[in-house]
Amino acid sequence: MMDSQLDIVQKPGPITTDKVRILNVDIDNVTELEVLKHLDRGVVFTPNVDHLLLLENDPEFLKVYETADYKLCDSKILYYVSRFLGTPVKEKISGSDFFPSFCKYHKNNEAIKVFLLGAQEGVALQAQENLNTKLGRKIVVGAHSPSFGFEKNEEECQEIIEEINNSGATVLAIGVGAPKQEKWIHKYKDQLPHIKIFLAIGATIDFEAGNKKRAPKWVTEIGLEWLHRLISEPKRLWKRYLIGGPIFCWLILKQKLHLRSIISKLVLRSIPDL
Fold first, then answer.
1. CA triple 198-202-208, angle to 5 deg
2. Residue 69 φ/ψ, nearest 5 degrees
3. pLDDT tens, 57-102?
4. What is the DSSP code (8-state) at residue 151?
5. Residue 32 CB: number of other CB atoms within 10 A?
6. Please, which residues have CB within 8 angstroms of residue 199's CB and are 6 or more apart in sequence?
7. Distance from the first to the final alpha carbon of the chain
């Protein structure tokens, strides 16, 4: 086992865990249950292949990522990659699995009150209704679907902050896509004093609302969820998977062989919008 790939990292946060290094990210080597038992405050990100490629070409995103208390292995691909590198993670913990597990785990914990931020108009409200009905209590106390480009509108951001602060929520689950959701948490978390737990959850709000369908579990378990998503949204995702995928494989091979090269960096800069 390579010391450069698996280290014990001592830092403030909910718990101290082993870290599995994949490219620029130290992924927490934990199980979902371990996180659920220990997570009482902090910021949770869920790195996947797309995140790792964005981090190669976005220094601001990388700085934000380094501040997260938990970085959970969102992708079965990363799960397999960790084994290829000789530093296996215990399990895949995707945001779309972790969030409903989190809500179910805290079903009877009145201290946990969730605010949903993300998705298209009306979708977050539908997710709120579905979750509250499924769990039999008002665990989701507020929901808001922001306008497109809201993160660039300071007035709208302040209105959202006020809505969250007035909701009584102690957990913010934001799903507006990476790197937007992670950067928004980092920028505004200090203005949300009642929020103890910040979850960046991507498309999970759409899934909980029934607005989008997840890949069948067997597809996810063999690492082909990316193919299901590509078929579902080819115009939006073709570049991410068909161009980004081979670049990611090259970067992983470089890490495995301890190679140094600027070729991949130049390629990444030429297609910044994966």
1. 95
2. -80, -30
3. 999 999 999 999 999 999 999 999 999 999 999 999 999 999 999 9
4. G
5. 18
6. 44, 95, 98, 99, 102, 171, 172, 173, 174
7. 32
